[in-house]
Every structure is written in structure tokens, then in C-alpha cells.
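Let us work through a complete example step by step.
Step 1: write down the sequence.
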Amino acid sequence: MTRRRVVAGALVVGAAVVALLLVPRLVRDTDAEPRNASPGQQCTDPVLTTSRNRTWNNGGFVVDQDMWNNRGGTQTLRACSYHSWSVTATQPDTPDVNAYPNVHRDFDAPSLTSFTEISSRFASMGPGEGTYNFAYDVWLNGVATKGSTEIMVWTDTHGPEPQVQQQGEFTSRGVRYTVYRGGRYIAFLGPNRTAGQVDLLAFFRYAVARGWLRPDSTVGQIDYGVEVRSTGGRPLDFAVTDFALTTR
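Step 2: predict the structure and record it as C-alpha cells.
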């Protein structure tokens, strides 16, 4: 997801083209074979270890370093599979997101009306220090284009809340979220959870009902990962130990 333009939790459309030119070109690796890691377990025997800003295709998903706004920090990715990977990140104290290591699936712009289910399962491990948040990041009506909408679902937050206006609350599967919106950026801040399930289609339908999203909006990309703002200049570990996405 090299086209992310989230700074302090808000979508920055005007700087998109400029920032794209500043991001190092990603190297895509499709040759490596995944190693088994049971869901819920941390990757300990990675098939891919890299400190470069690169991606790895596995099982129809992409594991992505996504150091899109890196400001002199370092990040090492270790991946066993799309549902079991980790990064060791060292980032200075900054107010903005420096990187969003993630797993994502790209879509060929299907309409929301064509889906009866878009749901996901996640599990994550964070250090409990530093400034970061694990979150889903979904792009609709394009991926970081002028007319696209970004919807995030924050699952484990250690740092500032989204820096846009609160718009009320939304409950899905018994979990209550505070809703934030600024322009074409919508965020759902939930309670801190290290594992759970998310009915993503319910969030999209809520945005449609509020008039923030067209009913015929198209899906461009669905990601899950960690927005790393600061590690205090020391190495900290972040891991995704389970991930699944169901669409029908």
C-alpha cells in the first residue's frame, strides 16, 4: 500500500502526487515459498527477512513494508506467511505516521452492492510502548486518488486519537466504536483488542447510511497492519499473528 497519505490520522489528498515521488520504489518478491505458522503464533522461522521497502505476494495477499513516510528510521520485516509476520521498527519521535507495515488484498473495483459479506479476523502483538495503532485501512473508489475515500478501523491504539471531528458512535458485533470524519477520511476507534473479528461491510453500510459514501462505491484495497509513529528512537517489535479476509 505504497500510496497511503495519512498524516496524524487524516487523509492528505493534496500531497499525494508529491509524496509518491519521494517513496522508494518497492521491490515485489513472488518467488519465496511460505513457511507454516499456525494462526495465533508469532513467525519464528521467516521465509522473508528484509530491511528494504518491499512487498511479498503470498496466498493472494501482499505483505508490505510500506515505509511511505519514513523520516530516517529503520524497519526489518520477517514474514512466514500473509497471516504471520512481524517488524522491528526504530523511529524517532514524530507526530506523524512514519510507516504502515501491513497485509493487504487488492481488488478490481467491485461495487459494494455486489457483496453480501466482507469480514475479517485479526490478531496482533504490540510492545505496549511507543506511539502506534493497529488498524484496518480500506480504500474505496480508488486507492489514494483524488476522489477516493479512506475508512479505518482502529483495533489497538497507543497514542493520539484520529485528528478529525467526532461524529458519534457505532456498534458492530457488540463492540462500540467512536466515529471520526474529516473530508473523505472516516475512522472508527474501538477499544483496545489484540484479537477479534470485524464485519467490515457493516462499517461501509453505516457510512452509506450517513451519506458519506455512495451506495455504488467500489472497493480498491483492504489492509490490516500497524501505523508506527514513534518508538522513541529504539527498536520495538510489532507482529500480526493471525489474519483472514472473507468476501462473498
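Step 3: interpret the result. The two ends are 23 Å apart (CA to CA).
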